TrEMBL record:
Residues 302-354 form the HNH nuclease domain. SMART domains: HNHc. It comes from Geodermatophilus arenarius. It comes from the Bacteria. Transmembrane segments: none annotated. It holds the Pfam family DUF222. Residues 367-377 have a biased composition (Basic and acidic residues). Residues 367-391 are annotated as: Disordered. This is DUF222 domain-containing protein.
Amino acid sequence: MCSGEPGSGDVLDDVAALVAERNRIDARLARRVRAAELEQAPERDGLRSMASWLRGHCRLSAAEASRLVRTGRALEHLPALAEAHDAGLVSAEQVAVAARAVTPERLASAADQRVDLAVVDAVLTGVAIEQSHADLVAVVQHYCNALDPDGPEPDPTEGRSLTLSRHADGSLTIRGHLDAVGGERLQTALEAHVQADRPAGDERTRAQRLGDALVQVADNVLAAGSLPTLRGHKPQLAVVIDLDDLVDPHERPNAGRMGFGATISAARARWLACDGAVSRVVFGPDGAPLDLGREQRLMSRHLRKAAELRDGGCVFAGCGAPTWWCDVHHLVHWIDGGDTSLDNAALLCERHHTKVHHGFRVERQPDGRWRTHRPDGTEITTPAPLLAPAA
């Protein structure tokens, strides 16, 4: 329905009402997240922080989980803005912008300069309700600059960020921000490859050439073997693919699984195998690796490789730690008669390895799924059940 037709006003009223309701729900959610953080509630499920709990149990992105936590903290220091948020007049995005003004460092600076935070709260609330989002951003930035006009040179690392968003096909979208010096370093490294790889008739766009250069930089660093080791192993590109698919000359999409979870075609796996080592791994009917191409019993490094192939990361409920953060845990401790075998092994990150040695328990089901239990015997499940409506 076009905006000029009869009845369109009702639709717009509905949109405005829904936005206000969403704001109110976001406000309640942020307050409950803060309450859970103050109670250290995530510890009940074996997790350290509300951000990690939101990622693991509610399937939120790292950025959204962190924003929720920051919003809950900010509302405590900005009661007028919090009231407007509760009323649906201010969005979660606006509160996230205002939260920059009440970080622990800026609160301390404001106290040293005897800034009346109530006045700042009132100004920010008025701008958020009555003016544009861009105006709110400008006012918050002005306030932050005023707190430290002649302060020391800021630490450039504080402003650096990089977000990798994986899509269903395994491709990545890269978003980030670098300080001037960090950006110059990256541009210099990329430009070296861009200028060195300009064959005649090259019709790639500038963006495509920079993308190729970034991949080449990563490829060179991996090949040099100078990166820090991950759990005793040099970082390397790994693909798991069935032997039949590897030797089949057809395309076979999604035949290979890579270390971060992306899938690639058999043709792409064969292309990678041209310049890489190929290891034979025999899987049993339950999907567990039985043999890694060695006649002797699986021990140490070989057992770890088998556990990585089977588990793919920390098996503790709600944890997404990758394999290189993990230890190989004995389900039945060796001192209690447990053997060093894949059936008696579980991949756990350091935090959750500690947890299972202090009352928590993980167990693998016959179908290959892992279950996690608290010290009181209750099971940790994900995603978490919906909270009951407030009375």
